[in-house]
Specification:
This protein is an alpha/beta fold. The chain has 11 helices and 6 strands. The protein has a 4-stranded parallel sheet. The protein has a two-stranded antiparallel ribbon with strand order 5-6.
């Protein structure tokens, strides 16, 4: 027997958080989007609306579906109110030990020592219900996707730092040789180099592995404000990050 989640709270209204909230709402699940920063709480729904508007314009979404999705999303900057009545809490905060520690200190009564089989199966069904493919991993820094992605990204940046080859050629090698849909450096630019730096630092400190240590080149780019697509330049120069499919200029 499994449990059907009807009320979900997403902690973190950044790029990942607002995307998760949108997917949940599209499955007609009541969703609360929380962030400690008021600017993020305000910006998250705006980004969701902009994405839905684009889908309607492209004919991929009806006006009715558009309005239904938005109607299933609420926002909050009050953690106690955000998690009130939540049957499932999805954490999508930055990879910062301090942020995660402070956050879960406040909601620790909802976090159990062990995960029961019923909870595991219920969450798997929930992920499938919102149209995604679940994978099961143990609780570990970076889990699976971020852990693999970060270590590849850090090595790619080290190759640029050592003048082994250019960013565009590293990305081309990963796409053509390994079948990746996008190379690690272009992906890093799209995610945000500041986000990648924070994640790599967190995983490196938690696991104690030099494989995740951020190269000086990454730290320098972030210090210079070259954060990738959102700032207009990272490992690529982005002429217009709002234009889908536009190829950036390699730096």
């Amino acid at each position: 027997m499994t449990f059907h989640f009807q009320h979900v709270t997403v902690l973190g209204a950044g790029a990942m958080g607002h995307g998760i909230a949108q997917v949940c709402a599209r499955a007609e699940i009541a969703t609360v989007l929380y962030d400690v920063y008021l600017s993020a709480v305000d910006n998250g729904p705006k980004l969701i609306r902009a994405d839905l508007d684009a889908k309607v314009s492209a004919g991929d979404l009806s006006e009715t579906e558009h309005d239904t999705i938005l109607a299933h999303i609420q926002r909050s900057s009050d953690l106690a109110l955000a998690v009130q009545g939540a049957q499932l809490i999805i954490e999508a905060t930055p990879e910062s030990t301090d942020i995660k520690r402070d956050l879960f200190r406040l909601v620790e009564q909802r976090v159990g020592e062990l995960t029961s089989e019923v909870v595991r199966e219920s969450v798997v069904e929930f992920v499938e219900e919102i149209g995604k493919d679940p994978i099961l991993v143990r609780d570990s820094a970076g889990f699976a996707c971020s852990r693999l992605g970060i270590v590849v990204c850090m090595e790619a940046i080290r190759m640029v730092e050592l003048s082994v080859t250019r960013p565009a050629d590293i990305d081309k090698a990963m796409v053509l040789s390994y079948g990746h849909p996008i190379g690690p450096l272009r992906l890093a630019d799209m995610i945000g180099l500041d986000v990648q730096l924070e994640a790599a630092t967190h995983i490196c400190e938690t696991l104690g592995s030099e494989a995740f240590r951020p190269p000086e080149l990454l730290e320098r780019r972030v210090a210079e404000g070259k954060l990738g697509r959102k700032s207009g330049e990272g490992f690529y120069k982005w002429r217009d990050f709002r234009t889908k499919g536009e190829a950036p200029d390699a730096t």
